[in-house]
Amino acid sequence: MARARARYEVSGRTVFVTGAARGIGAASAERLHARGANVALVGLEAERLHERAERLGPRAIALEADVTDMAALERAVQATVERFGGIDVAIANAGISFTGTLAGSPVEHIERTLAVNLLGVWRTDRAVIGEITRRRGYLLNISSLSAIAHAPMMGAYTTAKAGVEALTDALRGESAPSGARVGCAYFGFIDTDLVRAGFAQPSAQGLREQMPSFMSVPAPLSVAVDAIERGVERRSSRVWAPRWVGPLLALRGIVQPLSELRVLRDIGTLDEAEHRADSPAEQDAQDPLLGVATQAIEGR
């Protein structure tokens, strides 16, 4: 019988988290900090980052950096190493979403999504991988169920998340000789600002009603944080949440055809949703840097 892999002790180690101002990034940093880790909170929304770091205390540092800026990420890595002596775990979590179709939404929305959600993960990985391999640590890239289920009006997002899965698989193999581990996280809809705001868009209403009920209700934020905590502790190659995502990953060859059939049953609803998504009213309401997330009701 193979021996169970030894638990990777988080206490005393340093964790570097992008997209740490809110949502999964913020909650994961707080959870790992509570387990005894030092945490570097990296992202935009500097005021939010600094408030969180001040609340956590001296084992936390806030570092403003846009993941589309490699130099800014490298400075954040350097500042973390200078403060805590190294980086043992990195979570490439930063992500945004805009509503709209590939053909009709503003080009800058499509390109910003790809720049943050795919190239931002790549830049984060490149900036931290030297530290991760040096300390035989763990890097976790946040992908999505969208990596295998490619929905209408999520074209740039799902393209990026599929790319994140691919680059993670390649980097896992490249990093193996050092003893470092690289993982990929696949999440369904989680109760974050991004998901709440996305579901609140007029264009999402009809399509959401077509989803299976177990998919259309966002899972509590804690289930994603639990999965990340387990992933770090085990240095897992793959983690997912909620639980039903696992079987869909195993059945990935049929997930996309079945999801297309479900959407195409009602072309009228899809057509109406696409027109709403590309309307000036919906497009103009989205923040040019953070997409739909800032439309979520604060404190909800």
Task: Please give a quick description of this structure.
The chain has 300 residues and is α/β, with parallel strands linked by helices.
List key phrases describing it.
300 residues, alpha/beta, Rossmann fold, 14 helices, 7 strands, globular
Topology:
Elements: E1 14-18, H1 23-34, E2 38-43, H2 46-56, E3 60-64, H3 70-84, E4 89-92, H4 107-117, H5 119-134, E5 138-142, H6 155-175, E6 181-187, H7 193-200, H8 204-210, H9 213-216, H10 221-234, E7 238-241, H11 245-250, H12 252-264, H13 267-277, H14 280-284
Parallel strand pairs: 1-2, 1-4, 2-3, 4-5, 5-6, 6-7
Describe this protein's structure:
The mean pLDDT is 90. It contains 14 helices and 7 strands. The N and C termini lie far apart (48 Å). It is α/β, with parallel strands linked by helices and 300 residues long. 51% of the residues lie in helices and 12% in strands. The protein has a single domain, classed as NAD(P)-binding Rossmann-like Domain (Rossmann fold).
